[in-house]
Write a structure and sequence with these properties.
5 strands; Cytidine_deaminase-like (chains A, B); homodimer; 40% helix; globular; 5-stranded mixed β-sheet; 21% strand; 5 helices; alpha/beta
C-alpha cells in the first residue's frame, strides 16, 4: 500500500495554515509539527494581529508542540513550514533539538541558510517541498500590498 | 547633577530578574526594556517552568514591551540583558529594530556575536556592563547542577 504520509501531504496542511494567515492580512506563513504521522501543532504567522515580532508560525508551533508533549525537546518531531525559517526561528529550532525541518519556499534575504544560523547537529533539513505553491501565496500577498 | 540612569543602573534591575530565575532553578538570565529612562518590561528565563525553549528572558521582554507600546517595533528602546543574546533572541531583536542592546556577560559558545547572527543596522550594542556580577551568578547556578 502506498504511504500517504509524504512530506507533500503534511506541507499541504502547513499551506492551509498559511492561507489562514493570508486571510487575516498576515504575511502568509504556516507551520505544523508532526510526530509519528500525527499533527500535534498547527499555527500561522500572527505578527500583525498580536503586534509581536516573535509571533512567527514556527515559534508558536514549537511552543504548542512542547506543550502537547509535556517537554521542551522536540525529539522525533518534524516541523513543516511554508517559508524557510528566519534567524530567530532557526535559533529556536536549534534549542528544540528537533529531528527534521521541511520547508517550502526559500527566503533569499532573511532565510537562515543564507544568514548562516546554526541548527542542532541532530536536525535534518529538507527544502523545496511544494515550493511553487508556497511561493505563489507569498507573492500574491505582497501584490495586495502594492 | 549626576545622571543616575546609567547602563549600570538598569543592568542592576536586569540582574534582579536573573536572581529571580536562579531562585526558580532556571538558568539565571534577566532582562528589562527601557524607554526614556522608564522600565516598560521585566522578565527572566522561564524555559524549565514553561517547558518551552522560546521562553528566554529577551523573548518575553520583547513581547511585553511591544504590548506596552501598542506596536511591534521597539524604536528608542534599550534592552538590558545579563547574558549575551543567543541566535534566537538576536534574531527576534533584529525584527524588533530595537535601538540599543546592552548585555552583561558574554556567551562564548552560544552568543550571537560568535555565531554571526545579524542585528538590525539601526541597533547599537554595548557589552560587558556589570559583566562580573552577571557571570558570577551564571557560574553559581551551574555549580549547583554538578
Amino acid at each position: 500500500m502506498e504511504n500517504i504520509f509524504t512530506d507533500e501531504y503534511f506541507m499541504k496542511k502547513a499551506l492551509q495554515e498559511a492561507e489562514m494567515a493570508f486571510d487575516k492580512g498576515e504575511i502568509p506563513v504556516g507551520a505544523i509539527v508532526v510526530i509519528d504521522n500525527k499533527v500535534i501543532a498547527r499555527s500561522h504567522n500572527l505578527t500583525e494581529l498580536l503586534n509581536d515580532v516573535t509571533a512567527h508560525a514556527e515559534m508558536q508551533a514549537i511552543t504548542s508542540a512542547a506543550n502537547f508533549l509535556g517537554g521542551k525537546y522536540l525529539k522525533d518531531c518534524t516541523l513543516y513550514v511554508t517559508l524557510e525559517p528566519c534567524q530567530m526561528c532557526a535559533g529556536a529550532l536549534y534549542w528544540s533539538q528537533i529531528t527534521k525541518i521541511v520547508y517550502g519556499a526559500s527566503d533569499e534575504n532573511r532565510g537562515f541558510s543564507k544568514l548562516g544560523t546554526q541548527l542542532h547537529p541532530k536536525t535534518k533539513v529538507v527544502s523545496g517541498v511544494l515550493e511553487n505553491e508556497c511561493a505563489i501565496l507569498m507573492r500574491a500577498f505582497f501584490r495586495t500590498k502594492r
